[in-house]
Amino acid sequence: MAQYKLIHCTINGKEVEQMIDVRASLTDMLRNDFHLTSVKKGCEVGECGACNVLIDGECFNSCIYLAVWADGKNIRTLESLTGPGGEISDIQQAFMEETAIQCGFCTPGFIMTAVEILETKKLYTRDELRKLLSGHLCRCTGYENILNAVEKTMKRRLGVPVE
Amino acid sequence: MSIVGKSEIRLDAFDKATGRTKYYEDRMPAGTLYARIRHSEIAHGFVKSVDTSEAEKIKGVVRVLTCFDAPEIDFPTAGHPWSMDPGHQDVADRRLLNTHVRYYGDDVAVVIAEDEVSAAQGVRAIKVEYETLPFVLDVQKAMEDGAPQLHEGYPNNILKHTSIRKGDYAAAITEPGLIKVEGWYDTPTVQHCHIENHGCFAYEENGRITVVSSTQIPHIVRRVVGQAIGRPWADVQIIKPYIGGGFGNKQDALYEPLCAWCSTKVGGRPVRIDCSREETFVSNRVRHAIRFHIVSWIRPDGSMAARKVDLYSNQGAYASHGHSIVAKAMGSFPQLYPCDNMECDAYTVYTNIPAAGAMRGYGMPQASFANDSNIEECAHAVQMDPVEYRNKYIMPLGFEDGFSKNVNYYDSHRECLEKGKELIGYDEKIKEFAKDTGDIRRGIGCASFWYNTAVWPIALETSSNRMLLNLDGTVTMQCGETEIGQGADTAFAQMAAEAIGLRSYKDVRIVSCQDTDTTPTGLGAYASRQTYVAGFSIRQTAEILRSKIFAYAEKLTRQSVDNMDIRDGNVVRKNDGKVLISLKELAMTAQYNPDDSEHITAESTFTIKNNAYSFGCTFAEVEVDIPMCKVTVKNIVNVHDCGNLINPALAEAQVHGGMSMAIGYGLSEQLLFDPKTGKPLNNNLLDYKLSTVMDHPDLEAAFIENPEPTSVFGTKALGEPPACSGAPAIRNAIYNATGVALHKLPMNPHNLYAAFTEAGLIRDEWQEG
């Protein structure tokens, strides 16, 4: 028998409350109850990274994070990066300009991990970035341009010359 | 030429970067029912009974359908254009649900429920009773007399056998002084692993059935759904939204027919089938594992006197694309390294593993591995540098294939090899690495590949296009060719803007979503065909549109049509470039003229009767840790001659993706089956080793742009070629590093341990005690 619970949390800057099935994943809640379709399902067992979102500033595969655990949390999805007038962030612009997007299915998850990396305000080496991005699978790009987009945005934000 | 040839940003980049792009699952109507499939838990047998009573008791379950309810219609699934010749039609060998189950994961029953949980519980509650039969997983064992038979009418499980005979092989091998270079080359079963699993939903409306699907080939799927559910094809409407990758898996009718049928069984209510990752690995399609036996007879100067190639292609349980794949692989042998005396035999054989279908490269990653491994051994046998050997014996300039009439117009192979050598620093590195003798050794290697663009003359090549002049002077365009992530829409928009004379590719509003009710018929994304074939219909339709624009402009400007052109979105006088009227003003006037209103539109179909070679190579540099049996790719370069680049940045990105797939094919990917049960062992992204960003060096893509003379925009295949030559280049680099010629993919520690032990490179000291 299904059980329901009321949870309160912040999603993309907005405080919300929602009655949820206690068996639901955070992916289910974000997609089905809040229509945040940037949260993608590629495996639903935490292998591919397509459903990655930020919870209190830290990346999680939302498919293996129960919706009930989101109570009291601050959740950010890719939709949060677009401003009220449709303006986009530097990391989204970099993904566009570096041809880091192909089918687009892994893109939201990658960008949110990039946000986590950029918010540390640290300068990572390319190899360190590889490790930090390795929780995401992509079959289209060979990761090359994704890595370039993240590296260039990191350097620009830190005022480091970009080759 | 100003718009074509520029690295423009993809038209869909903004929506994809903001997460607003809609894939099939994002377009689901509220209240859509969930259909979940019960798959067989045996590799081969007959379903004796299915007890659905417990499943039907579950609250939320709407309907349970079994293999005994399915229509008695055998249908084909391959994404090939319909052939009017019954002899060339695809093999119809499966039903929506099967009583004769032929692999672990076959479709036995389906539960339709109000919600996902009830559907899953329903699937588990079904009781299936089987009569089990012996099964066979290995391609050559399946050909033996007495092997378990999968399908009636295919003795020894041979779906098809074709041959090539050229010259006189038996006589040629008697030439004195020949060196025999012989090997078996084994390639594994792998899967496409697009990040979006296949899925679809179906509903009935106005007496017709609509399926919204994650597919590469909407117009072909329309026909297959019609065939499978026994409805006229025109009763079926397929809608293809954005899709999260395909790589050939979605060049097949997957679950669209079953989903459509399910909807008809619940009064036309919308029903969805969403494959899980585990189902995608097993119950969709896989790449054919092909085993090759090559015997090359070479002269002391390295020239090829005679060659024999046998190819055994593991089809799995159902025909899908069947023999076409190994036939293409076989067809590359007499062309890539031509030889006067050849005997080739290709067999496609049913076995009890998942059905193999199209996958990026269509037989060529397999053929390239076998061929360029054997060629490397030929070079070693005559102590010639492997690049020099290729330069000497690879397809010559001017080579013409008698069947396709393809001509090697440029010396593409040698130009690509030369550029690859230079970019990776081959000459210096091969000398430097020869000094390595320790546990860790470096090596460098290369491989070439053969590919051709599109499928003419094997099958129909057609492309249709529609253009509408909008009130603001932009043009709306519909193509039958599909965007599947590769950037096709952007390339088409660039070509159309160029052909019409618009200011920018952004002035072409491409309708990305194909709807078979309204989109002009095209065949879809496969065979690296789309940029080539769409070029023909785009130019032709643009010419029609231009002539209609000129006809209307003549009425408004009193200038002669012969003296008109369209530049930067304006109708201009050719002779002096004077702007006569902007397209915007012309469109507004034409539309709202009370005496002579016209919506200026054009559409046309072009039947393509050409094909084009597309060649290239990979150079790889590796470091081999012999005791650890571990290979690290340190550097890798792909060089392609795909003609003129329409969008260089997108072309480069396309090559990166193919290279990544090739590295996975070379080093880590394989779908494994339990020999005792036939059960798939690693059908998930944890145990199936897809490359991550940590498993690659930086990927370098380079091009030789020789304009293709048969193509409107001088372009040819690039979709699949990047996936072809990476694995053998890595293999040849390992050979260079260690002296061990590997004959089996993937070159993972497990397989390297066996090969290095046999070569005496590692000793099992623990065993020796």
Task: Provide keyphrases for this structure.
heterodimer, A: 163 residues, alpha+beta, Ubiquitin-like (UB roll), DNA polymerase, domain 1, 2 domains, five-stranded mixed β-sheet, 17% strand, globular, B: 769 residues, Aldehyde Oxidoreductase, domain 3, Aldehyde Oxidoreductase, domain 4, 3 domains, eight-stranded mixed β-sheet, 28% helix, 24% strand
Q: Quote the distance from N terminus to C terminus of chain A.
A: 59 Å
CATH topology of the largest domain in chain B: Aldehyde Oxidoreductase, domain 4
Mean pLDDT reading of chain A: 97
**Which consecutive residue ranges of chain A, at least 5 long each, have pLDDT under 50?**
none
Instruction: Describe the strand arrangement of the main beta sheet of chain A, using strand numbers.
Output: 2-1-5-3-4
Low-confidence stretches of chain B: none
Q: Any idea what the CATH architecture of the largest domain in chain A is?
A: Roll
CATH architecture of the largest domain in chain B: 2-Layer Sandwich
Q: Calculate Rg of chain A over CA atoms.
A: 16 Å
Question: Beta fraction of the residues of chain B?
Answer: 15-25%
Whole-number mean pLDDT of chain B: 97
CATH class call of the largest domain in chain A: Alpha Beta
Number of strands of chain A: 5
- What is the CATH homologous superfamily assignment of the largest domain in chain A? Beta-grasp domain
How many DSSP H or I helices of chain A?
Answer: 5
Globally, the shape of chain A reads globular
The amount of beta strand of chain A, in percent, is 15-25%
| Total domain count of chain A | 2
How many strands, which pairing sense, and closed or not: the largest β-sheet of chain B?
8 strands, mixed
Tell me the CATH topology of the largest domain in chain A. Ubiquitin-like (UB roll)
Largest sheet of chain A: 5 strands, mixed
